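User: Here's a structure from my thesis project, written as structure tokens. My advisor, Dr. K., wants to see whether a designed sequence matches the one we expressed. Can you design one independently, without my sequence as a hint?
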């Protein structure tokens, strides 16, 4: 059986399941938030989960697809409980829930995974070093915590600033706010205190276009994004001007770059993930930026007429048959 570990809001899972259904393959979708919002019973001495729609025998699982299996803050339980308890209490409940999730993952540890959760957590700093080791170009990268050091770096080259962790979305009464990549400007530095929270800055590499690649078991689905054609997306293509969206076209890497990407993914223990690159305006070289192991690939597949969802389903089925015989 193919097990999909995800959340109820994951539309990628919906589209992959549609192909699994067409191939008449046994599967089960386990949404992390449903473990909170619906019936669940676990006897820790066996590997059977009793759930709202039947029993899930973890011993019968052959292949696991893992994507966004967190869910506590996405659950109805979180939203109904948030206003009733203290923040520290809510954090404790989240830690308690993480033990259940971790138990499920550990029980499945020796199964065959498409994206193992034990390799899914990405460290941008480590990945920059790993990309360099694989022979890929990378922007000069620094972590700074003082105005003086930031000014020194800014005096020697143009800089951008981005989050060290995954971007954080802030929601309040006035709207939704996201963290985008931004160019460091002098007026920004002038307003800073002498010391601040350690922050990631990189040497700015002027770009011709951005490249987003979905990597699946050695296959690459790449898209060039002509972000420089719009003032809204010149710093970060995620800040889309929907009245005039960027042109997006299929892209193929030179063979030597493909080989280096394979080396990088093998070194990181990843068979699945989304990778961001840019093509430099000054020398035409391709620069690695970052990897998101659970990044979105619909925005690659649909504009470029790729068959990513079908290919993921087929790969899962191939892995399943390779185990079940």
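Assistant: Designed independently from the structure alone:
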């Amino acid at each position: 059986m193919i097990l999909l570990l995800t959340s109820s809001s994951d539309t990628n899972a919906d589209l992959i399941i549609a192909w699994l259904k067409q191939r008449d393959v046994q599967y089960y979708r386990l949404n992390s938030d449903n473990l909170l919002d619906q019936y669940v019973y676990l006897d820790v001495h066996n590997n059977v989960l009793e759930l709202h729609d039947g029993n899930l025998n973890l011993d019968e699982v052959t292949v696991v697809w893992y994507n966004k299996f967190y869910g506590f803050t996405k659950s109805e339980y979180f939203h109904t409980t948030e206003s009733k308890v203290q923040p520290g209490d809510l954090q404790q409940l989240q830690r308690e829930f993480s033990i259940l999730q971790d138990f499920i993952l550990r029980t499945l540890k020796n199964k065959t995974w498409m994206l193992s959760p034990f390799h899914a957590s990405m460290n941008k700093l480590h990945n920059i070093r790993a990309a360099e080791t694989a022979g890929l170009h990378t922007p000069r990268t620094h972590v700074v915590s003082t105005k003086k050091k930031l000014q020194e770096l800014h005096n020697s080259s143009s800089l951008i600033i981005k989050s060290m962790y995954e971007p954080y979305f802030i929601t309040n009464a006035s709207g939704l706010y996201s963290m985008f990549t931004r160019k460091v400007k002098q007026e920004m530095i002038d307003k800073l205190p002498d010391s601040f929270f350690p922050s990631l800055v990189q040497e700015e590499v002027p770009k011709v276009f951005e490249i987003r690649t979905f990597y699946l078991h050695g296959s690459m689905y790449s898209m060039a994004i002509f972000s420089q054609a719009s003032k809204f997306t010149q710093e970060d293509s995620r800040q889309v001007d929907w009245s005039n969206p960027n042109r997006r076209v299929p892209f193929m890497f030179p063979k030597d770059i493909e080989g280096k990407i394979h080396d990088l993914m093998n070194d990181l223990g990843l068979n699945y993930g989304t990778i961001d690159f840019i093509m430099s305006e000054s020398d035409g070289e391709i620069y690695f930026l970052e990897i998101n192991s659970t990044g979105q690939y619909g925005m690659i597949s649909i504009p470029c007429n790729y068959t990513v969802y079908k290919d993921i389903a087929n790969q899962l089925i191939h892995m399943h048959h390779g185990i079940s015989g």
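When you compare it with your expressed construct, this may help: The chain has a mean pLDDT of 89.
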